[in-house]
Fold these 4 entries.
Entry 1:
Amino acid sequence: MPAHKKKKAKKNKRDFAGELLKTVRLLYKFYLTTPHWKAVRMRRLRAAHFQCEECGEHKTILDVHHLHYRSLGREKNKDLKVLCRPCHKDAHAKS
Ligand SMILES: [Zn+2]
Ligand SMILES: [Zn+2]
């Protein structure tokens, strides 16, 4: 294969991975807008008594963090963790 063609093939492969990641992120973003996720999120917030499970903060915006994405769409309470924004940021910085 001529050198210039080889280079192009490599680039296409990288673009595909990038596109795939973009699509996955988009799907995840969409999932977070579904009534299903909103119900799961509310159930989890209630279970945590509307408090951050890391620092106990409750007078703030709380996120429901995925400990992993293996059960996406059928999350159990143990798959999720209620975190305030700073603790949520820390959780993602670690992983
Ligand atoms: Zn916190
Ligand atoms: Zn998270």
Note: The mean pLDDT is 91.
Entry 2:
Amino acid sequence: MQIFENTETAFKIRTNKELRKASILFSLMSYPLLVRLSGKLANLAIHLKIPVRWIVKPTIFSHFCGGETIEESRNLIDRLSKFNVESVLDYAAEIQESDDQTESVIHEIRRTMDLARETTSVPFSVFKPTAIAPVRFLTAAAESAVPSFLESDPEKSAASFRESDTEKLRQNIRTLCQAAYERRIPVMIDAEESHYQDIFDSLVMEMMQLYNKEKAIVFNTIQMYRHDRLDFLRDCIRIAREKKYHLGLKLVRGAYMEQERERALKMGYPSPIYPDKQSTDNAFNSAIAICLENIDRIDLFAGTHNEESLLLLMNLMKSRKLQKNDPRVYVSQLYGMSDHISFNMAAHSYNVAKYLPYGPVRYLIPYLIRRAEENKSVTGQAGRELHFVKLEISRRKNIKNKK
Ligand SMILES: Cc1cc2nc3c(=O)[nH]c(=O)nc-3n(C[C@H](O)[C@H](O)[C@H](O)COP(=O)(O)OP(=O)(O)OC[C@H]3O[C@@H](n4cnc5c(N)ncnc54)[C@H](O)[C@@H]3O)c2cc1C
């Protein structure tokens, strides 16, 4: 796919040393056993409070993360912006152990919004709802047997949450949506495992109704590996049209496939995930088409490293006569992955933002394990990444030899 193949553009931001490091990292990640073992060791080290920062930070952390603080990440945000690649600062806090900790997460996310307000190259803010959810709510969700969208009696499933916990969650989400609205900075709310998602979806829809009257400020995330999500997308569009608000949508395939399948099996309910990759791909591509058909109502943020889906998006934009940099359409890849897509699309004037996770190294360990897992198959992502990195290393060598 020609647009993605210019490795000079793809890796302009990378020094020779960084490229060599990427090549070693992706080579190592293509050994599934090594990845599995390192993940287990990292989790154990965190559990036993053994320091791992000294080894993780200069290696996998520096490849996939912006830094440990906002200030440390700023340098990278500036470097990316020189190539028209924008950044979404993603504070990597996941589930917290106390309600005081959720307050400090809310405070930190507000700081990312402040940065976005003063930096044109940070067009969105983002948070994970589980990181600001009351601890009791998360425990109840984890214990409830069936995700509510699979429950024949939704009242029964909703009843497993205490009203006060749901109300606190609503308040926390509203605090951040209000902060985003005041700063005119769109906020994306990540999607997580399906047993939490139903309540998150209904609260986020409520926020859209409040804050998205003039433009899309609040964005929900739809995971297209779930077999109920095309219907959900159509419902969201219908409701947004009826209630006259803008729909902010981040489309992704979904990152929790193995956990979802294991949980469904263990608890004895049908898996919410499509049975194969092709079905997920078809659903994701249909969702892209549906969003572009409804672009008068939707702001779309397509989070994907899949070249075919992105080619489809570019073709559909062209056939709908949308400008490449139409402000309603963004594409995004995770920092450290698929530079051949991000930098080449940015060079062709599409709106591109890298998801830039940051935070203390120990917060980033689960995120880094997910990335390593995702990259472990040679035929999959790591193979693609390695292929392009190697091409660029040899292109640079050839130029040097010719001189
Ligand atoms: C900017 C950005 C933001 C993101 N935010 C979120 C988020 O909020 N929530 C979230 O869950 N994920 C999020 N992700 C991760 C995303 O869901 C995917 O895990 C990841 O991007 C890989 O999918 P892909 O579209 O890049 O491409 P591909 O590599 O083509 O697809 C891999 C994906 O396909 C699906 N898949 C693979 N095998 C099967 C199978 N056998 N059966 C069914 N489906 C299968 C899985 O979803 C897998 O992750 C985000 C990704 C990006 C780039």
Note: Residues 190-191, 221, 223, 225, 252-257, 273-274, 276-277, 280, 303-306, 332-334, 355, 381 surround flavin-adenine dinucleotide (CB under 6 Å).
Entry 3:
Amino acid sequence: MMSDLSEEEKAVKQEQERLERGRLLFTRPAEFLLGVVALKHLPPADRVEVSFAGRSNVGKSSLLNALVGQKKLARTSNTPGRTQEVNFFALESKDEDGLYLSDLPGYGYAKVSRSLVKEWTKLLKSYLRGRPNLRRAFVLVDSRHGIKDSDRDIMKMMNECAVSYQIILTKVDKLKKTEQEKVLAETKAEIAKNVAAHPDIIVTSAVKGQGLAELRAAIADLVYGN
Ligand SMILES: Nc1nc2c(ncn2[C@@H]2O[C@H](COP(=O)(O)OP(=O)(O)OP(=O)(O)O)[C@@H](O)[C@H]2O)c(=O)[nH]1
Ligand SMILES: [Mg+2]
């Protein structure tokens, strides 16, 4: 007779199923829904939403495109501060509830005027505060630079707005393995003090595809429950 699976085998199988659920979720067609500059234009809060925040040029739009497997869904650019609205993308399904992904305006770009920064902060704050279906904000951090003060400001804002968030390290294809490990350890140590931060950090490369399966699975956990 066949013996039952060991605990370890069970855990491996569960993780495989989790990754598969994430993969399937992202086989849905993704569509650009709309870009909003004011809150009154937000789409109805009737489905799970996750958002992507981070400094200008950190790779938010690139990561979104890589996640959904479409090169040009979200506009990427070499000009920091390109995405100036909250852009919404929808993953629709005939049989299941939909999912919204939102691409937030980048922050921390020195060359924008103070009044523009003020506008963005206002938009961001009211979005974070007034979005009941926002299940998690991913805060993207460039793995070459680690957490910066402007990231700390955003995380503080998320804390205050009771939005739970998770750090994603981006562009790890630019780092050697030892450098990756170093920035991961430093980032982990910093967020350990923070209760609103998810303890797991997802290490990604939009270019090489690293971490995408894990990120898709993390989003699927939010859609379907653990
Ligand atoms: N090597 C490498 N480059 C990347 C990666 N992700 C993004 N980039 C590059 O980084 C630059 C900025 O990427 P975007 O995705 O436009 O960044 P963003 O965070 O959306 O920028 P804003 O909309 O201006 O806030 C582009 O030149 C991308 O090609 C990555 O994983 N690896
Ligand atoms: Mg962008």
Note: The two ends are 32 Å apart (CA to CA).
Entry 4:
Amino acid sequence: MVNELESEILRLKQEKGAMIFAHHYQIDEVKAIADHVGDSLEMARIAADSEADILVICGVSFMAETAKILSPSKTVLLPNLGAGCPMADMVTADDVRKAKEADPGLKVVCYVNSSAEVKAESDICCTSSNALKVVSNLEAERILFVPDQNLGGYVSKQCPEREIAVWRGFCPTHHRVESLDVARTMAKYPNAYLMVHPECRPEVLDYADFVGSTSQIINRCRTIEAQTIVIGTEVGVISTIRRENPGKEIVLLDDVMVCPNMKKTTLEDVYRVLRDGTNAIEVDENIREKAFGAIDAMLKVR
Ligand code: SF4
């Protein structure tokens, strides 16, 4: 049942010609009022193609920046300005600039989970779905992959012919799980099919039956026959998968897989930014153009 706050949000959304986007890791109440639930690039692309002039991005700051990079003429609102990403903060534009100055043959691939400034200094972006394809297709003597050591390491292992240096950043939510935690859960569900996100540690990936992005995990759950599935990614995805697969037992790999930043956005925050038009995200035009170039280069990879 729609409560008073939800109906006010829906009313304001219509009145202002806004659209609400929520990342899979958001709380269920926020996902319930969103026009679209998806991963960061998916949200930004659909937002750019939409008719809406105001985009409310329920996620963390780099997601709102990515939406602004693709939609410079639209107003992009981030409901909670305190929602950042510790992994994105583990590399700076200056770090990337210095690495390139030190090695002119270096090309930089940056995971979309990074700041606009870092994207602007990178040659090309990637997502967890297309990282392997992006790296395989890149013409470069040497590659630096930023900021996630686990996704970078996963790609590097599958491209032994490429010279890839990997930045030592990590997502605390995924990196926290160790092989002993996997062993403990799998001992409880010995016949379960294990799917994990490539932001997990390599030893956790080694255990998995399937490694994929959030969307790839959601899609795979729809098609596999296994009745018990253990999922190693942020807890927010679990409710979506359970709802879509009512006959299957869906288990979170470890209870620690919660991103505190993704849980900061509340319905009250969404209501407030819609009502007041506050928390608009701006990206310097010079940085935006360069960051757009890195995203566009990725979108051209087939
Ligand atoms: S789950 Fe990890 S990568 Fe995603 S916002 Fe949280 S800390 Fe950043």
Note: The pocket of iron/sulfur cluster is lined by residues 25, 60, 85-87, 113, 171-173, 234, 259, 261-262 (CB under 6 Å).
